[in-house]
Amino acid sequence: MLPRCSCLLLLCVTQLVPPSSALPFEQRGFWDFALDSLENGGMMTMMRDQIEGSGTPEPPTPDVPMCPFGCHCQLRVVQCSDLGLTEVPKNIPSDTKFLDLQNNRITELKENDFRGLTNLYALSVRNNKISKVHPKTFAPLKRMQKLYFSKNLMSTIPKNLPASLVELRIHENRIKKVAAGAFSGLGNMNCIEMGANPIQNSGFEPGAFKGLRLNFLRISDAKLTGVPKDLPDSLHELHLDHNQIQAVELEDLSRYKNLYRLGLGFNHIRNIEQSSLLYLPRLRELHLDNNRLTHVPQDLPNMKYLQVVYLHSNNISQVGVDDFCPRGFGMKKAFYNGISLFENPVNYWEVQPATFRCVGDRFAIQFGNYKK
User: Fold this and answer.
1) 231: which DSSP letter?
2) How remote is the C-alpha of 106 from its chain's centroid?
3) Are the CB atoms for 216 and 191 separated by under 8 Å?
4) Gene Ontology terms, cellular component aspect (predicted)?
5) pLDDT surpasses 70 at 215
6) pLDDT digits (tens, 9 = 90+) for 270-326
7) Which of 28, 115, 279, 356 sits most deeply, having the most CB atoms within 10 A of its CB?
């Protein structure tokens, strides 16, 4: 009798509950799906399974790539920076495109550290303590194009870099020597940044850059006393700022006919031999600031495409009417849009206006040798 009453009561309650109108589907997050499943009888099923045990087999675990402990892995980017790591972590996903290991305490790159990372595009080991690299470390990295190796303790260029490499940043190490063939097989290399290494001119062996077709090279903040003579002739940009170069001699630049930008600022240059700059027929920008020049270089009027020249912070005491512009009409193919002469012992009011007849805008001239 008791079960029959319970059934009748349940039937009456069911008939009294009004039908509810369906709401539009709105996906908000994982817990919304969990709550929906609990509301639709999932709670009773879960409780029964906990007490009696479920006979339904568990679904197989999806094959999710591992992520090294403490690292962040997302969209094929693995970020393991600033973790105090002393070695390259294990379990790096094989589909990784960018691996960030900067700002750690890694001392060595071992043979199998990057095994299986055939899709890696860029690697950053910047600001570690790396002084040793196994000759086969980079062997698996067949597609790597960018390597950021600055602020480490390397004394030489790592061996057997990937042939696919396009950009190498290895400044602020302890490199004193670049051996012949150090970059052999790197025909795709476009950019090398190797400033702030204690390398002298004698540290570049003949053939050190053989086979390279670089566009960009920076050897700033080193110990160079002259312009290196065996750099790639394909260069568009060459930066030798913050060295100890004392002069530019006639043949120093004869190899670099494709240069668009030349940086020689913050050196000890007192003299630029006449006609030495004429080897650079395509030059657009010339940095000679913070040197010891006493006059404007004599080749400037004949540089048809030169547009920017930095001469500030020298010892120039006089500027002649023909120091920048050619005398003949139409000989200058591009007007200047920047000439800096401030912090020189030259009186700007003594410079004739015709001196800057090939300057596009008067605001492009910077003297600054006066007080307002």
Assistant:
1) S
2) 20
3) yes
4) extracellular space
5) yes
6) 999 999 999 999 999 999 999 999 999 999 999 999 999 999 999 999 999 999 999
7) 356
